Amino acid sequence: PTIPSGVIEAAILNYVPGYIEALTALGISLPLVVMITLQNVQGATYAVHSGYPDHPPPPITRANLECHPILVDTLGSQLDYQRALRPAIDALWNVAGYSEAQSFDASGKWKGPAR
Length: 115
What we know:
Elements: E1 2-4, H1 5-25, E2 32-34, E3 37-38, E4 45-47, E5 65-66, E6 70-72, H2 78-94
Parallel strand pairs: 1-4
Antiparallel strand pairs: 2-6, 3-5
């Protein structure tokens, strides 16, 4: 089984800002901690490209992937949230053998699925 990075990243980057804004609208004050966990993923691969002709990513060796907590202390723009959430996405790319996500540009803006 594969975990498509573009789908996971899009979900994180599209939904988390809405959750944060909804919580603050309900009166929950900042700061908030965002924790991203992929459960029951042992044996799957985190697919960061559409094809791996020579070097497929290694299978995930843990049942659960728990990314480091992200502290959100201010409301911001979509780009601000992308920059804030990038360390969690970098951690997901780590399991595919990369030091950081390749799906962001130099300014920290998400480019979409890597190609």
